[in-house]
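Side project, low priority. Logging it here so it doesn't get lost.
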Amino acid sequence: MSRPNLLNRLTFRQLQVFQAVHRQQSYSRAAEQLGLTQPAVSAQIRQLEQALEQPLFKYAGKTLHVLPAADALAASVQSIFGQVSSLQMELSELAGTIRGELNLAAVSTAQYVVPHILARFRARYPEVQVRLRVCNRGQALERLAERRDDLVIMGMVPEDANLAFMPILDNEMIPVVWPGHPLLTADSPTLEDFTRYYVLMREPGSGTRTAFEDFVARERVSLRHTLELGTNEAIKQGVMAHLGVAVLPRLAVQLELASGLLASPTLPGFPLRRSWCTVHPKDRYPTPVTELFLRFVRELLPELNAHFKAPLVPAPGPSFACTP
């Protein structure tokens, strides 16, 4: 007896739900990503399994196991959705407009850069729907692993051969103190002088914190006094309140430096440099809109570098590429 024609039994919604479960390897996380209830996700997968006459997932205790049929279907679904995105782009071009969706995640330090890019992108392609999620580095890594976004913008890309990345802009990190701080008038202050004060820092794993800790370790200087605060904004307020000193991205404090609310002493080895990069898994086929955005960013690089005055060229002080 021949199998029924799948074209008459499958829906795009079922395939979309399946793709989320396959990527997340979790019904609950897939439901959260799609804005559905977990029973709704379970029902869609059950209907899909009935249509395919094949089991796709199996629970062993609380662990969801992906079965061979699911891996085979996932490859086909990725191809199908890629073709649909290409068709959408072609139809948009025929109609004289570019439409589609672009889902981005950016680490919190990149929030000073990404809006400038998106403003220019949206001005040229107003019909593209852009969604941006700002998160810390740990959350960005989680979203990257779960493939929840088209692109992740971050400054410290994991050492993973399966990731594709493109540097877009230098991230200069500088020492920051309050106006009138003794280091501003000291004769040739050192890193050790700086660390005698309480150093206000982000959470463990933060790109800025990691870059500074790596630098301090290489210089064999001890961080005797640290105080952990949750955000760059909280750290800036802490420095202004004379709670301590900090190392922050220059772009995060440029307004405060210009207005005299904060100051930056001259210390050997600074600024530290990393590059903000766009990142995505190599085996995730970029949608046409994602490819369009990457091409747009490449074209925009000279303007970005001129605007932020942080060109991607060698400069004094430790330099770090996208990878550690």
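Brief comment: The first strand starts at residue 57 and ends at 60.
Revisit when time allows.
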